[in-house]
Fold each of these.
Amino acid sequence: MPANKKLLVLPGDGIGPEVMRQVRRVIDWMDRKRGVSFDITEGLVGGAAIDAHGVPLTDETLAAAMASDAVLLGAVGGPKWDKVAFDKRPEAGLLTLRKELALFANLRPATVFDALVDASTLKPEIVKGLDIMFVRELTGGIYFGEPRGIEDMGNGERRGVNTQTYTTTEIRRVAAVAFELARKRGNKVHSLEKGNVMESGLLWRQEVTRLHQEEYSDVELHHMLADNAAMQLVRNPRQFDVIVTDNLFGDILSDEAAMMTGSLGMLPSASLGAADANGNRKAMYEPIHGTAPDIAGKDLANPCAMLLSFAMALRYSFDRAEEAGMIEASIQRVLSGGMRTADIMAPGMARCSTTVMGDSILRELDKLSA
Ligand code: IPM
Ligand code: MG
């Protein structure tokens, strides 16, 4: 574990600050009860940074992120900033962080908690025990490809352009992350692209195949067209273990996978860069959910995804798998006890606020460490 555990906390917009507050309570708990302490800096990102500084990410905050062992981010965006220039919108702050920190591998677990199996829109027998690890490429593809823009064609027509590009290196490094993860799980990788239509997809398939032959032939590898995968995800999601795909397909399909679990409010993510000589990676952890402006500030939001994101930080950045497991187990227990925030409320359960969910999780943590 790094001697100096530098954590940059960026609550962001909407429900970001209130779910992050529950993480701060758990961080304090870790300090008091487990002797795990962090050197914490807090900053602004997204709309909050626009309001204070006119930009979604200041150079100072970016520098703080570069100097941290991990960044914890709440969520960014909201209707309040709809009229802001496109390159200054809240989401641009998030994209700059991903790109500048070179966080090319985005891990999005889609797991169904037993207590929440009925919250899924799919039948319980389809999703029970579901445990997929999505690995989305995060710093390449059509999100960043050049040329891009909206051009005036001079005849009253305009043309919007984005470019999908992938290089050998970009494909191999993210595929390697997927293969490594698979070895610690079900040992199976599905690689998704549209190689039947797109050259970048064809290259993706070829490079994943080559890397597999060279270094990971012990892992079961399947290639699947991304549209077929969208269908297979709702037909028989348990056929998947690790899925690796590009930035755009990963954005779309990870939302689909997430929704199968019943609540976006339960799902964390980790974005990782390349390992340095000491094996440390730049990393950012954030829940999958957005800012939920409609319920922001009302103490209604589900803090579990944010707490589980912190658990991922403990596991992947700070070598504290035991404490990560304690957070996950505490959440399981609170759910099994019938406590539910509004987003996962079900008949016969006890509806609770963000704060009370936090209280309950802290109580379970106390019991686990007693
Ligand atoms: C996500 C989000 C972002 C993305 C937005 C907010 C830019 O949808 O993290 O999945 O498209 O990557
Ligand atoms: Mg998305």
Amino acid sequence: MNHRTVVVIGAGTMGSGIGGVAAVAGFSVQLVDRPTVHGPSRSRIERFLEGQVKRGRLGASEQAGALRRISWREEIGRIDGVDLVLEAVVEDLGAKAELFSALDRGFSGLVATNTSSLSVSALAEFAPDPSRFLGLHFFNPPERMALVEVVSGAKTSKETLAAGQNFVRQIGKEAACTRDSPGFIVNRVARPIYLEALRLVGDKVASVESLDRLVEGLGFPLGPFRLMDLIGIDVNLAVSESVYRQLGQEPRLRPHPLQRKMVAERRLGRKSGEGFYTYA
Ligand code: NAI
């Protein structure tokens, strides 16, 4: 990538995390979201950069340089000269499709989606050129998680796949390539764990705390409830619904009523201050 400019649409949990990492790697980053989100997004990135300085991974001038390379805006604006447009908005096909449809049809860079579960091939059809479209599925928190699933859609070209892998490497991450399939690899494997844990708690077999402690005792860094709180209960529900729908509504993949109840009550996990646990 020559110009080294990335537009990240959606400055929530994932967009801000990815934006901060890309800025540290030297990319100019434009984060697009509602103005009310700009402040929290900036604070998250400042905290990340501060942490990098404390750990000796960044000097003060690199910290300032990374922050200078990031801008926040409400509209996408002109994207000529941009290398990559990466979308990290709500997990909803309609919302993502609308956003890709609005991109300049003459755009010659790459377009990527951070979707956790939706069809990359289906989303590609709304982009200016499906051959220059791919999935770049980061994990939460993007500042810390090394792996990125690099997902090829039906029309993703070899050059696009190579450029996507290159971008992942340039920002210091490791690419794991996969073909388009509901939930890709990680969300497909993890889905039954979340849902079985929810059923066990819903059936009063175990408490949230004891189940987390037991699973963490097996060697998982976070139990399923702590992990759902980190991901966002709303995001996890949307992914559960999407995988359930796409894999033929198998009963074992049916979303749990507790997920819907918590979303209705806005108990969304860490980002709202309360989920399965309470956060200060
Ligand atoms: P989030 O809810 O934290 O942030 C989404 C942001 O998108 C919000 O700030 C919202 O204002 C913004 N947004 C919505 N529509 C927009 C539009 N048209 N233009 C600009 N901004 C818009 O969600 P999160 O967790 O960052 O998830 C985003 C995407 O990343 C989803 O597709 C999700 O499945 C995926 N993902 C989430 C992970 C997680 O653990 N939370 C992990 C990996 C992928």
Amino acid sequence: MSTHINAAKGDIAEVVLMPGDPLRAKYVAEHFLTNATCYNEVRGMYGFTGTYKDHPVSVQGSGMGIPSFLIYATELIREFDVKKILRIGTCGAISEQVHVRDLILGMSACTTSAINRTRFDGYDFAPTADFQLLMTAYQKAMDKGLQNITHVAPILSTDEFYGHDEGLDEKYASYGVLGVEMEAAGLYTVAQQYGVQALAILTVSDHLITGEATSAQEREQTFTDMMEIALETAIM
Ligand code: HPA
């Protein structure tokens, strides 16, 4: 086992989907995977492995924020030889170009976190998605007829859910950033560090400018679309 994941080598697939919420991981395992078994319960951060269309796939909760995400993603890559990580999550929209329920494929991730300033001696680093995963996910979304709600764009990974300057969202939006969440910059950085593939697929859960809302049923449908795109991309 690794420090935070109580599994043996081989218990975890080379491909891992990572929702922030560990109960989401359980839900995905129960509703989208076949013969899923739980390999981790440490800190309640559930991880499951099953199959999707006969391909082994794992789903591991990450917790919220870059520090928690990096603990799990780093151990998955370093200790369990994971080669592909797809974050499946939600984001807040910061641009009127997007609406609640839309899908955003994060092409790159700006961040208010200082992780890369410490890694790169005070200089910048551009956390970027894997092109092949991005292209595949985009194609899967088109195949499902979701062209009107799918965006490929930079996103913003903040360190704070509460209290960050709203003027900052506006400034990022004016540079083409569409959504804000809290993990993708960590995912892309660690994936690039170890030469593995990564992509964040996000559904827009709330709109920070228009205050637009959505019904539980609509959220469920968007979640299913995101999961099908993520799983089809994962097994390519
Ligand atoms: N901020 C940060 N993370 C989020 C948000 C948000 O508004 N919505 C969903 N994840």
